[in-house]
Amino acid sequence: MLxxxxxxxxxxxxxxxxxxxxxxxxxxxGLAWAVDSHFGDSINQMIGDQGEYDLILHIRExxxxxxxRELERIAEEQFPGAKINETLTVAGQSNIFFGxxxxxxxxxxxxxxxxxxxGVPGLNGYTVIxxxxxLIRGVHPSVRQQLQERFQEITGVKFSFKDGLNMLVVLDxxxxxxxxxxxxxxxxxxxxxxxxxxxxxxxxxxxxVANEVMDLIKDQVNPDQMLNVSSAEYxxxxxxxxxxxxxxxxxxxxxxxxxxxxxxxGFHLVEGEQIVVQGTGEVVPSQDSEFEEGLVVVExxxxxxxQAEGMIIKGSISDAxxxxxxxxxxxxxxxxxxxxxxxxxxxxxxxxxxxxxxxxLRLLRELDELAVEASLAVENxxxxxxxxxxxxxxxxxxxxxxxxxxxxxxxxxxxxxSEQLIxxxxxxxxxxxxxxxxxxxxxxxxxxxxxxxxxxAMRSSxxxxxxxxxxxxxxxxQAIIDQISYVRDSLPLLEDxxxxxxxxxxxxxxxxxxIPGERVQILIQNGIIDDKQFxxxxxxxxxxxxVNTYLTTVGMINPxxxxxxxxxxxxxxxxxxxxxxxVFVIAILILDQATIFSTLKFLRSTRNAAKNKIxxxxxxxIIFSSLIGMILLSNIYLLAKAExxxxxxxxxxxxxxxxxxxxxxxxxxxxxxxSQEIMAGQALxxxxxxxxxxxxxxxxxxxxxNLLNRAKQRF
Amino acid sequence: xxxxxxxxxxxGKQVALNGVNLDVKRGETLVIMGPSGCxxxxxxRCINRLTEPDQGSIVVDGKxxxxxxxxxxxxxxxxxxxxxxxxxxxxxxxxxxxxxxHLVLAGVERDxxxxxxxxxxxxxxxLKHRHKKPTNLSGGEQQRVGIARALASNPDLMLWDEPTASxxxxxxxxxxxxxxELVRTTQTTMVIVTHEVSFALKVADRIVLMDQGQIVxxxxxxxxxxxxxxxxxxxxxKLIAG
Lengths: 715, 242
Ligand SMILES: Nc1ncnc2c1ncn2[C@@H]1O[C@H](COP(=O)(O)OP(=O)(O)OP(=O)(O)O)[C@@H](O)[C@H]1O
Ligand SMILES: [Mg+2]
Hints:
The complex is a heterodimer of chains A (715) and B (242).
Chain A: H1 2-6, H2 9-47, E1 55-60, H3 64-78, E2 83-90, E3 93-99, H4 107-111, H5 113-117, E4 123-128, E5 133-137, H6 141-152, E6 157-163, E7 166-171, H7 177-190, E8 191-197, H8 206-216, E9 226-228, H9 235-255, E10 258-263, E11 274-277, E12 296-304, E13 307-314, E14 324-331, E15 337-347, H10 349-376, H11 381-407, H12 415-428, H13 446-452, H14 455-460, H15 465-474, H16 477-490, H17 496-510, E16 519-525, H18 531-542, E17 548-552, E18 556-558, H19 561-606, H20 613-617, H21 620-639, H22 649-665, H23 667-670, H24 675-683, H25 688-699, H26 704-709
Helix pairs in contact in A: 2-19, 2-21, 8-18, 9-17, 10-11, 10-15, 10-16, 13-16, 19-21, 19-22, 21-22, 24-25
Chain B: E1 2-11, E2 14-24, E3 29-33, H1 40-47, E4 55-60, E5 63-64, H2 70-78, E6 80-83, H3 95-105, H4 110-124, H5 139-152, E7 157-161, H6 169-185, E8 189-193, H7 197-203, E9 206-211, E10 214-219, H8 221-226, H9 231-241
Parallel strand pairs in B: 3-8, 3-9, 6-7, 7-8
Antiparallel strand pairs in B: 1-2, 1-4, 4-5, 9-10
The structure holds adenosine-5'-triphosphate (ATP) and magnesium ion.
């Protein structure tokens, strides 16, 4: 077989191989690149250039048009210059890209994203894609604030904000993203969460376990740098729930009757202790008597010296119309009344509220009627003015009452939410079935509009009542009346006892005693802990072999989405290139090389059978074709920078070997030799290279071989 | 000029040549005859090494043909004209190119090559078809081009492997005519394998009969057909008589 190449065809063949490899690599990588850049372009088109868009709003398909209009309005009014681009609609969800104008890419705006876009109809949520930025996934709530402050100090960081459980650090420019992300990583690396997990069903006092854990590791970690963050782990939902509970408690406390306790000399008040007073009932408590129904039980809270506040947990003073001053007896847990230990002052504030409500209602009705009358008889302005003023003054009183009522709720700036909560609390009977069924569909914001009534403005415009009268009519006074009526009707139903019980219930929740704690998490800063060794110790210490310990991070830097996408594209490109390399090699083996394989096989058949047994069994032409397949495929694959996932270059070489063997074996099917012509060539004294150039190749399929041969071919 | 000694060839278990011995003198026209499959083609192919024998020796003009390699082999082959049963023309090339291309590739001056090609084509009566492609010619015309191709290199020895066997009877005549003419006018040594008995009688200096890979009878046409010693010879005798 070597002889076949020896008389000059070897040179032709080497040129062919080199050209094949180069063309194959260019073909594979070029076509793959074309596919890649096509996809890249469409991705760019879709997600815009770097930093062009900041978020993708996911909108229900049917609301798309309205949502777009609303977004355009938002853009026009709040963010002139903002970009909006409606893209794909997938599975009933439209995705609208929104890009803030450069000036609006501020912390303030991003922190307020929910506020800005909540009103968009059909909004199912949004994905923040602000660029350049670094996304940190799964930031532990306990360190979010700390991290945010620390990230802020990194040069190159514009600002950072929380997006769900993630945190986005927005950068000044893409250039320093690597440096910044290294710094962020270094900060994240300082923190660790040591987590203990108990199997389902274990009731764990998280506080106690946490203390035990911290005690165990105090040698390794500075106690200042450990923090029990077990409950924070419950995330947003629970956070909100806990906040609601706190507000509820504040509301209930402000609504509950005020109890002031002053200990008698020689007595100490203890929080949680129960004191019996007479209340508004007939029964008078006395030492060493049994507790009787009708008496009022007060629980001591907030002890300060010999003074304390109290909370009625049994009985009621709801019908009291003035401040009660009564003797307080200690109530023992067995139900007997013990010594007289304090003087107790009880004040039913609901009375005032109720009074105010009643008055308001009366005046509101009048106002309503007045408004109607006024429009009929404006000339009677004098009288109306007086009545109106009176009504407004009363309204003011009511407003003050309402403010007072909600004062305890406003710490978190969620006034309207808490008001809604109160209303629903009252209406839905969370505390008790305050109102009967049917009251559910109460308008939520009537109270608000009542409060928003600009009394000053109204007063000043009284002189111009005739023109203003329509304003009054615009207010749905009846709705306000209805709502206040509900409140009034509910008030007497809300007993001190119920309030007290609710507060106690909330307190137990807030103390974390009832939250099932299968997990305990300790935040550790700058500590090194061997968690496996620790596991053994804590199992020992808790006498519980089922607890497992883990060390986790407080957040993970997520690779940039666009970079990820392009990395993915690059992988796709490499895969396509790999597949194209295979296709190309198969094509070229069939088009070009099969001719050579067939010729080799034919020439061999005219020769004597080999002496060597192995060579007699295995056709050298097929060994040759296998090697050619391997050389072509592996070289083209490497040169085209192809990379099919999980496929190593060895596998590629073997694939080339197999493809080469197959095509070598079947070469006559792809490219039959004209044995008569070859024989003529031989008989005429042509050399192998001449036979190839003048007879075999010109008659073969068009391909690289044929093309390269043109220059050599003489006939 | 040609001596063949103890030539053996087998294809697997199939024995094609079983000790062939043959001598051909310069200028002699030798006709080999015999039944199908007896090894005529194999013998004649061995002479120009289109087939490699397993054993034996072939000497042409003092050269051990079976030892020739590379350019020496090719040079030898250029000096031996071979006419195939299937014509074996290069279909891609015109008649003229078919006759000239091997000369040019062998390094003959273009002018000289053309002259010789024209001469050869004229001899076989195909010059007027010089621009045609073989596929547009009849079988007889194709074979005449095949003959011209062999002639163009002015061979010392011409081997003919059943040149008329693939032609339909009407066309056989024109080819035999050309062959007879050649035998008459040239001094070239010819080894012709054919089934055409009357042609053999007319042109052969000597006839060799083969059977089962061996030469079973050799002699002048008269000797072979009038007083055959072999069974094959007797069969041919009957054929002529009948
Ligand atoms: N390439 C080959 N492979 C296998 N067997 C072959 C091959 N060529 C010839 N033979 C066998 O060798 C024997 C001699 O063949 P050969 O072609 O020499 O016969 P022949 O006398 O020329 O017959 P014909 O008159 O039919 O041409 C035959 O039996 C044939 O089947
Ligand atoms: Mg034959």
